[in-house]
Amino acid sequence: MFLKGKTALVTGSTSGIGGGYAKALAAEGAAVMINGFGDAAEIEALRQELEKLSGTKAAYSNADMTKPEEIRQMAADCAEQLGEVDILVNNAGIQHVAPVDEFPEDKWNAIMDIICNSAFHTTKAVLPGMKARGWGRIINTGSMHSKVASPYKSAYNAAKHAIAGFSKTVALEVAQQGITVNTISPGYAWTPLVENQIPDTMKARNMTREQVMNDVLLAGQPTKQFVQIDQIAALAVFLCKEEASAITGANLSIDGGWTAQ
Ligand code: NAD
């Protein structure tokens, strides 16, 4: 339990990879604030599970990552309810699949706001406290699409490349202050985000569900297996250790070999 006494804030953690980060950080003793949307009873069950895992308090914020004022309030609520943020995981994300000339403007803006702009607002809110304490970990969820592109995902690829660039910049700014900033870039992991894009991809590429699974999602993943949420969360936990204090400004792939090609 090496994270006892530390506070973690994980955006987009009511589901999928974010939920995995929250549980893994709580299992090491961190007080975790989760965030995101979903069924109220399921969110409360997750919050209670985190308290059991950590042996300390856990909290929930329903802040919308498209709204800077709500993001600032989330950071303030976390400081008040659990303590100032020591570990920030920017993870919230959505996807939309469409050719660029048909891409809806509202979807473009939402993807840029939720994946990229929210990380600026959360980082700006919690960095002064990390600097004052001389310790911090910021982990941004990238994607193989922060390094390479796939067609029909223009907003997502742009936002993920942007968050990886932002991550490197902040890493350089705080490199001598005990704060590391890294991007974790998973390949396809089996989560609701991936499942939900299958219908649109079927439409955009005129394919069956099986063809999308095998010929699109896992086609570029040399292991031919989805990355497991627990594997991604374990990497985040490692980045919080002192042994990882020299890892900063990195964009770490955990993608079954996707970006080796
Ligand atoms: P998911 O759909 O299971 O979870 C997304 C989370 O973001 C949910 O908790 C949701 O409520 C939250 N969210 C969405 N819009 C929000 C908003 N406006 N404000 C606050 N929270 C919001 O998806 P996931 O697959 O677990 O994705 C998590 C992250 O991992 C995303 O950044 C995604 O791009 C990235 N990623 C996923 C994969 C994959 O294969 N699943 C691969 C690479 C990267």
Describe this protein's structure.
- The protein has 261 residues and is an alpha/beta fold.
- It contains 9 helices and 7 strands, in the order E-H-E-H-E-H-E-H-E-H-E-H-H-H-H-E.
- The protein has helices spanning 16-27, 40-54, 68-81, 105-133, 154-173, 192-196, 198-205, 209-217, 229-239; strands spanning 7-10, 31-35, 59-61, 87-90, 136-141, 179-186, 251-254.
- A 7-stranded parallel β-sheet has the order 3-2-1-4-5-6-7, with helices on both faces.
- Strand 2 (31-35), helix 2 (40-54) and strand 3 form a beta-alpha-beta unit.
- Helix 1 packs across helix 9 (229-239), helix 3 runs parallel beside helix 4 (105-133) and helix 4 (105-133) packs parallel to helix 5 (154-173).
- The longest helix has 29 residues, at 105-133.
- It is globular and about 50 Å long.
- Bound molecules: nicotinamide-adenine-dinucleotide.
- Nicotinamide-adenine-dinucleotide is lined by residues 12-18, 35-38, 64-66, 91-94, 114-115, 141, 143, 186, 188-189, 191-194.
- Nicotinamide-adenine-dinucleotide (NAD) is lined by residues 12-18, 35-38, 64-66, 91-94, 114-115, 141, 143, 186, 188-189, 191-194.
Quote the average pLDDT: 96
Helix percentage: 40-55%
Termini Cα gap: 38 Å
**Which molecules are bound in this entry?**
nicotinamide-adenine-dinucleotide
The backbone outline, from C-alpha atoms, is globular
Global structural class:
alpha/beta
Cα-atom radius of gyration: 18 Å
Largest sheet strand order = 3-2-1-4-5-6-7
Main sheet specs = 7 strands, parallel
Number of strands: 7
Number of helices: 9
Contiguous low-pLDDT stretches (5 residues minimum) are: none
Element order, helices and strands? EHEHEHEHEHEHHHHE
Strand content: 5-15%
